Amino acid sequence: MKICMAQINTLVGDIAGNAQRVLEVSAAQRDVGADMVVFPELTLTGYPPEDLLLRADLLERTNAALDQLCVQLPADLIVVVGYPRARGEALFNSVGVIHEGQVLAEYDKQCLPNYQVFDEKRYFRAGSEPCVVALRGLSVGLTICEDIWHAEPVAGAKAAGADILININASPFHRGKQSERLSRVAECARAHQLPILYVNQVGGQDELVFDGGSFAVDKHGELCVSAATFSEAFPMVSVDPAADSLLRTGDLIPAREELESVWQALVLGMRDYVNKNGFPGVVLGLSGGIDSAVTLAVAVDALGPERVEAVMMPFRYTASMSVEDAEAEAAALAVRFSNISIEPLYEGFMAALSDEFSGLPANITEENLQARCRGVLLMSISNKKNLLVLTTGNKSELAVGYSTLYGDMAGGFDVLKDCPKMLVYALARYRNTVGPCIPERVITRPPSAELAPDQKDEDSLPPYEVLDQIIERYVEQDASRQDMVAAGFSEEDVARVVRLVDLNEYKRRQAPVGVRISRRAFGRDRRYPITWAWRSSHDV
């Protein structure tokens, strides 16, 4: 038997479109010899559907789509597909086996994740029974995503007589995730002496990126077939009952290096956010700094240069090299480039505010006003041309509030939102190995917001090499101040960074979404209150 692992890119809520995609892929794979086609978790609704699952009409449409599949799928083809299903008042995350015009069997996900970005216990009730179905002389066990990370569902399928296990997934990307999956599934296969087909979805959904990377391991945990990451793929697995390991070795796609994986995640996340939301293109402020340079390169790789506009918005503090480098970046990537000074806008605002500001010394207000002038320009271009504004803040800046509300934070998507500053530098160097587009001095010059004379980021922040490590420990690992000081960081740096992270939750709540590439990103991963009395700075 030949089984196709259909690693497809669905659209949340487009039930009719997702069902049509199942029909098209199934027919195409049958034509090239597939006996069975396996689709990812919650294929019909897309994943995660979030509170759409609370709507009765979503379930009505899902049931209608399931009926359509039963009628229109080739009768001799076995199709395994995920969808939500209701039983009485309970809703389950389910997978069904369709063959000869009917749903032969259904399995309900037993282990519902409720950590990091997952919130499945809000919607679903956990299943409790294994499902093993006889298909062409083969006893096939079914599981869904999180089930594979726990012993009980797999042991239940084995005890029920499974010869092989299918695990359908909507498993999002973070750095190092694919190696974790391979290790866990191989360990599970060896422990239960079961070949396992791991089918994952691909595509961007708001801040989540699903990287695909579907694969099959034999009962010894050896990798037999693997798919590409960050693109649709349809690897074929040959099942041979006469073989000791049951599976024949097929195509093995080499794993990507980590920087390449992160880059592809950013590209896919931006492409799908822009395309699935119907934007014709994007616009961003190109400052001559590292963050906007990397954002521009991601945008061009995601959308093509014809759909990207870059705007340089200089002020009296903007260095000439910043203007030159921005022009060079735009030229290297062949995007539309314009230069609009914010000087007259700034002076107009200052004149209008002269009575309000009378007798008060200059402070950060004047710096923020520069950023807000730029935000007004970009949002105006966005409104006029229907372009999505890309903001360019990185995780380090968002963590400590080194950004301006309604200024450089004004926009619809921040592709670097979960990328610490030092990773941004590494990504710039990686992208230049693919094709030079970021001038070397953009990478090597000291970072500056250029909102004051001779301003440098390190005037008000620890060096990024230090800052990023403290942020990672505090935000991603929940380390205390004592832990970080014991690890060798200065008490002064730790206290300052922790205080800034705690104080700036209100800003992060108003930030645009961006691609998640770490184990804990700002947003749905980390849910801290804005109004609170507790502070981490008190734990000394």
Structural class: alpha/beta
> How many structural domains can be distinguished in the coordinates?
2
Can you identify the CATH class of the largest domain?
A: Alpha Beta
> In CATH terms, what is the architecture of the largest domain?
4-Layer Sandwich
| Rg calculated over all Cα atoms | 26 Å
Number of strands: 19
Low-confidence stretches: none
CATH fold field value of the largest domain: Nitrilase/N-carbamoyl-D-aminoacid amidohydrolase
Explain this structure:
The chain is an alpha/beta fold and 540 residues long. It has two domains: 2-255, Nitrilase/N-carbamoyl-D-aminoacid amidohydrolase, CATH 3.60.110; 260-456, 3-Layer(aba) Sandwich (Rossmann fold). It has 17 helices and 19 strands. The protein has helices at residues 15-31, 56-72, 151-159, 177-192, 258-276, 290-303, 320-333, 343-352, 354-357, 364-385, 395-400, 421-434, 440-444, 464-476, 481-486, 491-503, 505-509, and strands spanning 2-5, 36-38, 78-87, 90-99, 102-108, 132-135, 138-144, 164-169, 196-200, 202-205, 208-211, 215-217, 223-226, 236-238, 282-285, 308-312, 336-339, 388-391, 413-414. The strands form four sheets. Strands 5-4-3-2-1-14 form a six-stranded mixed beta sheet. Strands 6-7-8-9-12-13 form a six-stranded mixed beta sheet, with helices on one face. It has a five-stranded parallel beta sheet with strand order 17-16-15-18-19. Strand 15 (282-285), helix 6 and strand 16 form a beta-alpha-beta unit. Helix 6 (290-303) crosses helix 12. The N and C termini lie far apart (63 Å). The relative contact order is 0.08. The model has no long low-confidence stretch (mean pLDDT 94).
